[in-house]
Amino acid sequence: DIEHIKAKAYAGWCKPYVERNFARLQNHLMEWIKGYIGHSVSQRQAIEFFFSRAQRRLKRGQKSNQTNLHTLKELGQMIDAYTHSLMNNAYLQRLDSTPAEAYNARVNEAVRIHEYELCSKLSPLERRAVNKKGIAYGGLWYQSAAMFAHTSVFVAANINNTKELFMYDEQHRFIGVASNLDSEEMSAEMARNAQKIFYKELKTRKIKMQEARAEVEAQFPQMLLQAYKKMPKTHMPTLKAINDSNLYQAKLLDEARKNAVSAEILDTTKEVKNETQTKNIKDVSWEAAVLKKAK
Question: At a CB cut-off of 8 Å and minimum separation 6, what does 129 contact?
Fold first, then answer.
């Protein structure tokens, strides 16, 4: 029963306390960590002035010229430490105490749930197809070994970590967490295991598809025959010669055809001599049958 109320975009005055804490993180904590490039263009130029032009130039395949940066996990730990130690212990006049003191005074009124459960409740579920490379979401690719047992899954973004997706099956049961392919947490071993699971599932589905195809192919002639028996047929028109002179010829042709099909006693073998060998060729055409009957 969590109600998620979204504030108006680009309206910081609607959430002043949140924006104030963001400003403290940006203007205090971020200035002392690796990769700080300034709050403006002029500050960035002043910082980069101490680097050579070769150091500022990006190499092929690099996303930035910053090196030896913190990982996402390290940055999260630093933000948590700064928040709990400094921001929560700063005196606020409107509370007449620190945020930590005000919270501890009423902590028994709160009910705690897991961080992942809260994030999954706040994020809407979206259906995504599972491809060979993984799941495409927000222009990025995510991968997990557990996803390759499904053709499609429901995902919800982790609002506290953009490199993670929560995955659910068709019955909305939790499967696992998918990580971004560019993340440090996606190891080569995990990628190999995911590939094995994918090909194993693909092989299983191919076998099932071939079995289903063979079953349909085996049953199709019988199904077609049953449909032929049940469906109405077109009637053959009465056989009639074009004129009286051709009536006798039509009867001969009809009798010859019946005799050739039913009895197969016509012997129209003739010898054809070649320069190298002699071949026996049996002529079963209707012209030969007519000649045989006439003789």
Answer: 135, 151, 152
Residue pLDDT, tens place only, 36-79 = 888 888 888 777 777 777 766 666 666 666 677 788 888 888 88
- Kindly list the domain boundaries of the chain, sorted by start residue: 12-111, 113-233, 244-294
CB contact at 8 A, 165 and 178: yes
Q: Would the pTM count as exceeding 0.85?
A: no
The residues that bridge with 126 in the sheet, in sequence order, are 155
pLDDT in tens, 205-241: 888 887 887 787 778 777 777 877 777 776 767 666 5
Three-state SS letters, the chain: CCCCCCCCCCCHHHCHHHHHHHHHHHHHHHHHCCCCCCCCHHHHHHHHCCCCHHHHCCCCCCCCCCCCCCCHHHHHHHHHHHHHHCHHHCCECCCCECHHHHHHHCHHHCCCCCHHHHHHHHCCCEEEECCCCCEEECCEEEECHHHHHCCEEEEEECCCCCCEEEEECCCCCEEEEEEECCCCCCCHHHHHHHHHHHHHHHHHHHHHHHHHHHHHHHHHHHHHHHHHHHCCCCCCCCCCCCCHHHHHHHHHHHHHHHHHHHCCCCCCEEEEECCCCEEEEECCCHHHHHHHHHC
